[in-house]
């Protein structure tokens, strides 16, 4: 057997108490088969060597032994196989191989599969995959060949496999033909730019560039900033005729770190002059991603105070603007998980709404900070009988959104377009939102 072959591709879902029908079969794989700890939602054997389903049992037992399955390592060595996994929307994408191989290749392929399925199905959840099993299998057949990644560009896949819609579902019911496969091979598969459809024509040429950033920050119980960095993406929505050639430059490219590019980007211009030179795919795609590390401040501050005595705990949380970014901060939320020892909670705020969910998660929705007062939440937590003081303190998760600015300081200098007969319309936007923004108490 050659190296770098994937042997098996699996989608796993946490096991529930709901009983599933185990009799459904397609492409020699059983769906929703009950395995201790998990359900196999979808299975795809990719090479002649068949992987026994017991690998799922081993994987799930390993995941449960680690405590939090969401923090599980992406590469795991089992006694018989190497396992590669990512977690998206509660669904585990798992691939395994018998031979050693570059782990980033496997992880990137799983990420691409998750992105393509989310794009095709309009999201990722158990019901969507169950209702579109045939399309999912058709996509996997085209995305990987005998264990090697093959066609992973969404634009080419859309020409080969039509996305699900009401019309196609009605036709499949009326004609009995459930396949969405095209009878002809896309012309772009034989061109030098396989990510772009051939002979694209638009009456109005336009291209939009979005800077989308997520701020990850950790603030300790003393209010000191432990970590603050930004993960950003340059997202492009291109509707250009013919075969355009674009160059995108930044005003301050030196602050970018850990950059990743779409295959359309030519690496030499970036390596020499930090310029993105590329022939874009048609439609929306992620041109590049980056990180900006060691930022000095955050736009918001969150100050929690907890004091406990005699079986009760007083809690007070204040939220305000630390550094005004010059744009409106909205969609502000503060969430925290009530400790298991809390029997009841009585919380209120002077601005926004406070809700305690069934899983004991408290959600304080502030939206926007008013100019005339500082939002604050306060209340009393009642401990279980026999406990005098609170010993497990919650971590507060902060959410926010700022339209029109990139907090990292990244700025686009200019975007030049060539090989176009008409002058295109160019648009630029920026958005910053909270990622893993945590305040410890």
Automatic annotation (TrEMBL):
<dbReference type="GO" id="GO:0006886">
    <property type="term" value="P:intracellular protein transport"/>
</dbReference>
<dbReference type="InterPro" id="IPR028565">
    <property type="entry name" value="MHD"/>
</dbReference>
<keyword id="KW-0813">Transport</keyword>
<dbReference type="InterPro" id="IPR050431">
    <property type="entry name" value="Adaptor_comp_med_subunit"/>
</dbReference>
<comment type="similarity">
    <text>Belongs to the adaptor complexes medium subunit family.</text>
</comment>
<dbReference type="InterPro" id="IPR036168">
    <property type="entry name" value="AP2_Mu_C_sf"/>
</dbReference>
<feature type="domain" description="MHD">
    <location>
        <begin position="204"/>
        <end position="440"/>
    </location>
</feature>
<keyword id="KW-0472">Membrane</keyword>
<dbReference type="Pfam" id="PF00928">
    <property type="entry name" value="Adap_comp_sub"/>
</dbReference>
<dbReference type="InterPro" id="IPR011012">
    <property type="entry name" value="Longin-like_dom_sf"/>
</dbReference>
<dbReference type="InterPro" id="IPR001392">
    <property type="entry name" value="Clathrin_mu"/>
</dbReference>
<dbReference type="InterPro" id="IPR018240">
    <property type="entry name" value="Clathrin_mu_CS"/>
</dbReference>
<dbReference type="GO" id="GO:0012505">
    <property type="term" value="C:endomembrane system"/>
</dbReference>
<keyword id="KW-0653">Protein transport</keyword>
<dbReference type="GO" id="GO:0016192">
    <property type="term" value="P:vesicle-mediated transport"/>
</dbReference>
<dbReference type="GO" id="GO:0030131">
    <property type="term" value="C:clathrin adaptor complex"/>
</dbReference>
<protein>
    <recommendedName>
        <fullName>MHD domain-containing protein</fullName>
    </recommendedName>
</protein>
